[in-house]
Amino acid sequence: MRDIVKKTGLILIGAITGIMLSLNFSAVANKETKEVLHPLPIEELRTFSQVFGRIKSDYVEQVEDKKLITEAINGMLVGLDPHSAYLDKDDYKELQIGTQGEFGGLGIQVSMEDGLVKVISPIEDTPAFHAGIKTGDLIIKLDDTAVKGMTLNEAIKRMRGKPKTPITITVVREGETEPLIFTLIRDIIKIQSVKSKLIEPGYAYVRITQFQEQTGENLAQALKKLFKESSIPMKGLILDLRNDPGGLLNGAVAVSAAFLPNNALVVYTEGRTADAQMKLHANPESYLRGTRQDYLEGLPAGTKTVPMITLVNGGSASASEIVAGALQDHKRSIVMGSQTFGKGSVQTILPLGNDTAIKLTTARYYTPNGQSIQAMGITPDIADESERDDKRLREVDLNRHLSNGKAKEAELITRAHEIEQESVKQPENNQDQDKDKDKKNNSPVEFGSSDDLLLIQAMNYLKNIIEKLDHNTIETDG
Question: Which spans of this chain does the record mark as coiled coil (predicted)?
Fold first, then answer.
């Protein structure tokens, strides 16, 4: 038996060594660099091969080589950070479908934490949202199957499925003594990326729920329509990025470019390879793909100058943080709400062939002024109690999260908690605030509705700004 294991190990070491050498030489040749190859970790590869051999010879059931290698790849990527992952054929296909804005499922943005699935944010107008699934909920069972031991991709596969089919989700929620059980009916998740309306003449509201292929184009259409429909010149605009989990980078650049001066820096990235060093500006070269016509051409001139407030909360992540950071750094918009999620890392999809790929973290995002978004997020100019949620999961709470890159980890966590505490405000009318809080906790807030407290506050603040601007203009003219 020992001879078999030893032979298997030697063969495996040889195979792995050959593959790694091939990949290394290929990478060097493709990048045309003079980079010296790193020596192969022979001792670690020997240990790996011994484990592989023992499983093949001694495990209680026979295991296919493909399964063992695939799980080893999964383990390598999952052990890096919460966002790197191996994508098999189904996962790769689902990723491509998801960016188009339509797929079958429940409508939950999730991450893996301690072997369980945590809800980052329910997507607006989906079965999960209407059922009352909340940010921070810990999913422990899908139907009768325990989540512990599943990969994140396996859990997502179970939650997705044919429309009109039921699934029972068991969650643990902070503050609840017993697990909560939800029976949801899967549906086609059609995410309307851009929603817009005139709150009143001269005041526009635009909400972006997720950044997709068509987000920039849809925003341009919405802005043209709003400016045209207003019976008076546009005075103010509110951009709502709350609970927007992010999406495609070019969509974030396009949205930023709609409001920023031409060629203004939107975001830059820093990583180890030349491909990971990017600077993206407010120009078509940074947000258009292929030979498409520039859909931001012909926007009303007021989109670059109209006073703005951008709404964010702990569910604003990734691409939405890029937009908020760019508008804030260029002093184009006041940012109002609560500290954002802090997902400031770049995931690159690297195809492996056979319709599989890896999603690998390759860089960090930085705002135009050099602030790292990773694990810290965007700090609002105006913090608001109604958007604060102590139970909300953030990037800094995830195991193995990538460090900020500029701040020491301990200082980063301390500062994140300090920012949360600074956002607490004692309500002037406790009774009314308690009623509002109960209403908020018992049912999901419909952003943009008459019950949206932060929107009401933003409108009042925006009107005060415009009133002061008008007053100063009159004094100057006089």
Answer: none
